[in-house]
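It is worth pausing here to work through a concrete case rather than discussing structure prediction in the abstract. The textbook approach is simple: state the sequence, then state the predicted structure, then interpret. We follow exactly that order.
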Amino acid sequence: MRSSPPGAPLRALTAALLAIILALVGVSAPAGAATEYRKGPDPTEATVTAALGPFATATTSVPSSVAGFGGGVIHYPTDTSQGTFGAVAFAPGFLGSSVNYAWLGPRIASQGFVVFLIDTDSRLDSPPSRGDQLLAALDYLVSSSTVRTRIDSSRLAVAGHSMGGGGTLEAATDRPSLQAAVALQPWHTVKSWPSVHVPTMVIGAENDTTAPVASHAEPFYESIPVASEKAYLELDNADHRAATAGDTTLAKFVIVWLKRYLDNDTRYERFICPPPAGPTIEEYRDSCPGS
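Step two, the predicted structure:
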């Protein structure tokens, strides 16, 4: 029988105590190289598809006079007992504004995130400009906003719809330190994104005639390096307006992706690996976390 090395019982006791302490403050023990930031109860299909999650939220407005982007609305959890939260900046599509995504902001925030639905300097701004404005909005969030003390500045993400989705890919390229990106029915004249190394989900829509998946979402996804964590979801029988129409499946996977990569919460991994299927999903592809 092999004997335990000297000090082994003490190290085991120390590790167990550390795990208990981390659990009490809402952070799990490290999984591999990444620390998990678990917020809220164990997820179920009902919790990830609910109109609102477990956190009460509030809003604060940012004026258009702010430098670098056109202002917007911040949705944030009111709970201060669980430490800081990851934050995501969201860019609208062509001719759109933060108002068009008012249904989505509190839905994501109530799952334990600070969500900044931004307005762009001009509703005609190009995807590269929207990408720059997303990054400016994140910088504002962590340095100047009234909710900056609620944010973990090391856990930031970007998302956007249509041209804002194209801007999301631009931002992910320009700032590889981001923890997650979600591009919804993205539109861009650039079709290849080999420099995106941020974990990225691309959500297309089967009947999208504005940004057809064959010439936008699909090539965008395929061009992201296989070494990057990535996923492609195509919504069944949906069109370009899915992100403004309260689509439950779209919201579910935005939340799941942010939970998995912005919070490093492996409890959510089961929703994306193995690849999900169902009547609202036309197609799903991904690299499967860690594979």
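Step three, interpretation. The domain at 41-286 is CATH 3.40.50.1820 (Rossmann fold). The mean pLDDT is 90.
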